[in-house]
Amino acid sequence: MDKFDVFIFGTGTAGQLVAKECTAAGKKVGIIDIREYGGVCSQRGCDPKKLLLASSEAFELSKNMKTDGLAGELKINWREAYNYARRYTNDIPSNTEKDLKERGVICYHGKAKFKDSHTIILDEKEIKSDYFVIATGMQPLSLGIPGEKYALTSGDFFNLKNIPEKVVFIGGGYIGMEFGHLLCRAGSKVTIIDKGGHILSPFETFTSSLLEEESLKMGVQIIKNSQVSSIEKVNNRYLVHYSLNDSIHQITTDCVFNTAGRVPSIDNLNLAQANVVTNHNGILVNSKLQSTSQSHIYACGDISNKSLPLTPLSSIEAKVVADNLNGKNRELSIPAIPSSVFTIPQCSGIGLTENQAIEAKKTYHTIESDASEWFNNQRINAPLYGYKIILENDSNKILGAHIVGPEAAEQINMFAIAMKANMTFEELKDVIFNYPTWGNDIKSF
């Protein structure tokens, strides 16, 4: 029987950080993953997505500058873009595991589950630990419809070596929109079916609506207020059946992706045997990220009920867990965290949306504008640029900031700093930025 001071489920951003810090503090640490080491973000998420996006960004900029300094024809070579991304991700599992082993972490592979609150079972072998850390991330939400087995997931997207002629995404969240934009620019006919009234529901309606309009212009078909009822395979193609306006419709496609959302990946851990309380948001934890029912079991990253599926937050939570395991008695404190959809243009936000400000009974005012005619946007012939800022009436503090445009993901970082420093909007605008840069545009918001 193996015995550890700390045993960790998951080798993504959060699991690795906890393992390294606890090992450095002299603890005996074990870690396990059901897949290759490294987690979703580095291999099936943020990083390879951005690598694939590089070709789309270059293509878009070149296309927009045609006749204004560029000539000739360009197209996206998906196979080369795929190989480019794979060159980055191929060595991550082996390098991650090698690094952990060199630090003294004992590495396991396979599906382990709890026997009791201090014991797990792996291939009929018992492993005990004084403390457990669960950092298993998220998995695709089940569609719960006939033919769901035919739907690919976000992980499958990064194994897509050839461009489908037609593709359907079930869900208009950030994954569906990002993948949809990538494939549309590469030549696919893209359809996004969403059950809601607008795409990107967590984002500010002002900016997401502008992005929706631009998506339609570039050729993405968006079907809203619609529920997919089944997927049927016919020869080598698929029929996606969906309800719309009280009637059933169908669309034929070469492949279907389930991008309806993600849920905590905890179902196979047998947490009930360890008396770990969960709900639909994940493992219930306190301010120290300890299970509310088992103080020696921690949860961090996407699977705690205090979390959001954002890589920076996973790192913050992992640091809190590591500090508590190493005797530093720390509680989770979360600053305003920016979030971005890496479509072209990008859509970014931080803090409250206007609807959330209303729900929170804030007294506020907004500043919003379509800035498409501004110099920085015109300089590269980009089609869309706009913003909406939500300010508290009395203090003029920033309650929320929302931007859609070519560099929205970088601009929103300025607001993250300002909100962390508790600056007023005037104080942010008083900062001297490089001119003419996208950051400097904030002075004109």
Would you identify the regions where 5 or more consecutive residues have pLDDT less than 50?
none
Q: What is the alpha-carbon Rg in Å?
A: 23 Å
Kindly, what is the distance between the CA atoms of the first and last residues, rounded to a whole number of angstroms? 62 Å
Determine the number of helices (DSSP H or I, runs of at least 4 residues).
13
Total number of β-strand segments? 23
Structural class: alpha/beta
Net shape: globular
Helix percentage range:
25-40%
SS strand fraction: 25-35%
**Average pLDDT figure:** 95
Biggest beta-sheet profile: 7 strands, mixed
Question: What labels describe this entry?
Answer:
445 residues; alpha/beta; seven-stranded mixed sheet; five-stranded antiparallel sheet; 13 helices; 23 strands; globular
Explained architecture:
The protein is an alpha/beta fold. The chain is 30% helix and 27% strand. The chain contains 13 helices and 23 strands. Strands 1, 2, 3, 4, 5, 6 and 18 form a seven-stranded mixed β-sheet that branches. A five-stranded antiparallel β-sheet has the order 19-20-23-22-21, sandwiched between helices. The model has no long low-confidence stretch (mean pLDDT 95).
Describe the structure concisely:
The chain is of the alpha/beta class.
How do the helices and strands line up, and which of them pair or pack?
Blueprint: E1 2-9, H1 13-24, E2 29-33, H2 39-44, H3 46-64, H4 78-89, H5 92-102, E3 106-109, E4 113-116, E5 119-122, E6 125-134, E7 138-140, H6 154-157, E8 166-170, H7 174-186, E9 189-193, H8 205-218, E10 221-223, E11 227-234, E12 237-244, E13 247-253, E14 255-258, E15 262-264, E16 278-279, E17 282-283, E18 297-299, H9 311-325, E19 339-341, E20 346-351, H10 354-359, E21 364-370, H11 375-379, E22 386-392, E23 398-405, H12 408-420, H13 425-429
Parallel strand pairs: 1-2, 1-6, 2-3, 6-18, 8-9, 8-14, 9-10
Antiparallel strand pairs: 4-5, 5-6, 7-15, 11-12, 12-13, 16-17, 19-20, 20-23, 21-22, 22-23
Helix pairs in contact: 1-9, 3-4, 3-7
